[in-house]
Amino acid sequence: MLQGSFLPLDRFPLAVRPFVAWAATFVAVAIALWIRHAADGALPPGFPFLSFFPAVILVSMLFGARYGAVTAAAGGVLAWYFFIPPRHTFNLDVGSLTAMGFYTLVVVTDVLIIHWLQRANGHLAAERERSTALARTSALLFDELQHRVSNNLQAVAGLLVLQRRRLADPQAAAALAEASQRVALIGRISRRLYDADENGKGLAAFLTALLDDVVEANGRSDIARRVDCPPDLRLSTEQALPVALVVAESIANAIEHGLPDHLAPTIAIEVLAVDGQLRISVIDNGGTLPADFSAEATNSLGLSIATMLAHQTGGSYTVTGGPETRACLVLPQAQGAQDGGKHAG
Total structural domains in the chain? Predict the structure, then answer.
């Protein structure tokens, strides 16, 4: 993840074989000498090192401080011999020594600065690699935790089923069957409820997977499904579980009560983001509820749970009848979620 964002400077000095680095160093010195000779007639007196400064910087950057220091030393000797008067001698007067002292100060400074920058970049790259490894390990541990939680919930659901078979009371057996179904559903979707990085869930993909899970858990392959949700909306970590439970309960109710014998059953989830609120509607085409139906007035345990969870998120839950049955969860929009406008078609 982080590797794609590394700066090119992190790749220097280049990891090449020593003979390649030495050859490139001597080539750089030769080119600098040739350029200085070629420009000799056009330059005023006093620039004996002009072409050697870039060579020192370039070699130090590409191959490291050792090769940069050799370039600097070779360049200084060549400039002293060929371009500091009197030429073709290693004159030791005040002027030549001053020029060589100035050159030495500049190139030593350049090489040291580049060396320190490369060391800092190396340490930074190593820290990034460690951070990437830690993030990868954390994600794997988190996935394993979610996997184990899901398996444990499935095991609890199985135990409830076994306990139900031992009960003679039909109402008690029905209550345990309903509880086992809810626990099993939570187990199926628990791996999708949270993100290890805590950046929230992408709402469109989350609702699509949830709809598929609930429909498949009820053994219905004949139901057409549709999710209309802006792609940039997200759920906070705290909202993921209550939203999943409320929406799953709405889908299960639609399957059980709204679409038992429908010839062309359809369930749609529509999402609107308006005025800082998310409106998540589960719609079925069963049309079995009266127009004046109230979720709060019914004695259905599932609808009571959905209403309670909606209130816990600071929102509301309503179910309206008519030609279509619409279960609507309204809750505050997650912090950092973007307003995608009205639901996308």
Answer: 2
